[in-house]
Please model this.
Amino acid sequence: REALTAFGRDEVFLEEFWENTKHLEVQIIADGQGNVVHLYERDCTVQHRHQKVIELAPARNIHPQLRERLLDCAVTLAKNCNYKGAGTVEFLVRGDLDSTDADFVFMEVNPRVQ
Model:
């Protein structure tokens, strides 16, 4: 009932809780015709009150395979939605950045280079 009252819909969404995560972003530029380039990643984990305090570019100690997976994901997302313009694709990464097995999830795309 609470969801219906607050949002007019009664669906409830649950998310898995991840501890010890990193906030990584990939900058992209796309022309809306399927041509997308990335400007590599940066680590924006250090934040205060949801504001980035330190941005490390490129992310330190990131495994090349993890970097490639993140970059590919950002570019594929932009291509599949015919994205046009500059953007920032944000991910949450769980595990050590220097591991090939680190998991990550997509958080959001902001329509600007930050």
